[in-house]
Amino acid sequence: MKKRWLKWLRLTTLLAGAALLLSACGRADLSALNPQGAVAKEQLDLMKISISIMTLVVVVVFLIAIYVLFRFRRRPGNDGIPVQVEGNHKLEIVWTVIPLILLVILGVPTVQTVFAQAQDHSKDENAVIVKVTAHQYWWEFEYPEEGIVTAQELVVPVDSRIVIEAKTADVLHSFWIPALAGKIDTNPAGNVNRMFFDTPDKTGIFLGKCAELCGPSHALMDFKVKVVDDESYANWLAAMKAPAVLPEDPAIADAFQKKCLSCHAVGELGGPVYPNLTGIGDRETVAGILVNTDNPQYWNEGSVYENIYRWLEDPQKIKPGNAMPKVELTQEELEGISRYLADYKLNYESEELKNNDATSDKEERQ
User: Fold this and answer.
1) How far apart are CA 341 and CA 328, in angstroms?
2) Residues with Cβ < 8 Å from 140, sequence gap 6 or more?
3) Domain enclosing residue 324, as ranges
4) Which of 304, 315, 293 lies closest to 343, judged by CA?
5) Which residues form the Cytochrome c domain (predicted)?
C-alpha cells in the first residue's frame, strides 16, 4: 500500500514540475495574455471570464468530490449505504439552474464581442486597408489605397484602425498578431476573410505568426507589425513610392536585374512573385526570422548584411521547403548583392521615433 502511494506521489511531483517548467516557456511579445490593442484586450477579458467560470466549477466539483470521499467512505461499523438523493427535485433544479446561469454570464459578453469584432470597417474614413496574402513561408502586404506592396513587415500608424483582408496564394494559413488581435484563416480558392484591429497610442514592434500548420517551415513563418508615429508613416509611404535605386557597380546591377528582379521587386522594377525587397535594409528581420538586433533574447542575431548573405547563400537551409531556389551567384555577386540590399534603407523614421527606439534598446540592455 505504501509503495503504491509513493509511486503516485512521484508521478504527481513529476507532472507538477513539468507543468511549472512549461509554464515558463514562451515570449512576452507572442502572448495573448499581454494585450497592447483594444481588440486584444477585449479578447483577453473574454478569456478571463471563461477561465474564472471554469475555475469556479472545477473547485466546487472537487470540493464536493473530496467531501463525499471522506464523509461517506467505508469504515468499521458503518457499512450501510448512504441516504440516496436520486429524484430530489430541489437538488435537480439547483444543479440545472446554476449551469444555465453560468452559460448566460459567459454567453452574453461573448456574443456581443464576437459580433462587434466581426463588423466590416473597410468603409471607415480613417481606416487603413491592408490586403494580406499568405505564401509558403512569407507574408505579402498590399496597401491598395496607396498602391504599395511590401513583405514581412506591416508598417501602420499609431492610434489607427487597421482593416485586414486576408487570403492565401497556396495552402491554408492563419494570420495572427497575439498582442493586437486574434487570428484569422487565409483560405484558398479566392476566399477572403476580414478582420480589424486598433493600434495602440504608442509606437512599438509586435510579432506576428502563422497559426495554422502549413508545411515544414510553418514555425518559421513570422512577420512584424511596426507601429510608427504619423510623421514616420507618411515618410514611409513616400519612400516606398520613390523610384528604385540599383547597385552602383554595373556588374552587380546587371546580375541583380537578371537573377533577382525576375521574381522580386524593388520600387517600380521587378516581378511580383516573391517578397518585395524595397527598404529591406531597415526592416527588423530578413526572411522573417533572421533578427537584426543585438538583443540577446532573440536567436540568429547578426547584421543586415550577414543575414542577407546567409539567406542568399542557401535559402533552404534557413527555411526548408520554401519556394526560393538556390540562386547561382559568384562570390563577388553574392557579396555585392548582399551589401546592396543591406544598404537599401528608406530612412523614414522621425526624430521622435528614433529617440523612442534608442530608449527602448537601452532599457532592454539594462
Assistant:
1) 17
2) 132, 133, 134, 149, 150, 151, 169, 275, 276
3) 250-365
4) 304
5) 247-345
Examine the pLDDT at 23 and tell me if it is beyond 90.
no
The set of cell numbers assigned to 16 is 507538477
Number of domains comprising the chain? 1
Query: Rounded to whole angstroms, how far apart are CA atoms 236 and 156?
Result: 10
On whether residue 294 sits in a domain, the answer given is yes
Residue 273 included in any domain: yes
CATH number at residue 340: 2.60.40.420
- Does pTM top 0.85 for this prediction? no
Neighbours of 84 (CB within 10 A): 7
Which grid cell is 238?
A: 513616400
Nearest one of 286, 289, 284, 259 to 275, comparing CA atoms: 286
User: For residue 361, what pLDDT is reported?
Assistant: 52
Q: Which amino acid is at 106?
A: L
> 42-78, pLDDT tens digit by residue?
999 999 999 999 999 999 999 999 998 888 777 776 6
Q: Helix 351-365 crosses helix 230-241 at what angle (to 10 degrees)?
A: 110
User: What is the distance between the alpha carbons of residues 52 and 253, in angstroms, rounded to a whole number?
Assistant: 61
Q: Which helix (H) or strand (E) holds 132?
A: strand 128-135
Res. 364 pLDDT band, cuts 50 70 90: very low
Q: Across the strands, what pairs with 157?
A: 228
Q: How far apart are CA 44 and CA 51, in angstroms?
A: 10
Distance CA 175, CA 195 (A): 10
DSSP summary character for residue 30: G
337 contacts 255 by C-beta, under 8 angstroms: yes
292 is a domain residue: yes
Strands 153-157 and 265-266: unpaired
Backbone angles phi, psi at 49, to 5 degrees: -65, -50
CA distance 65 to 171: 48
Cell of residue 324, nine digits: 526560393
Residue 271 lies in a domain: yes
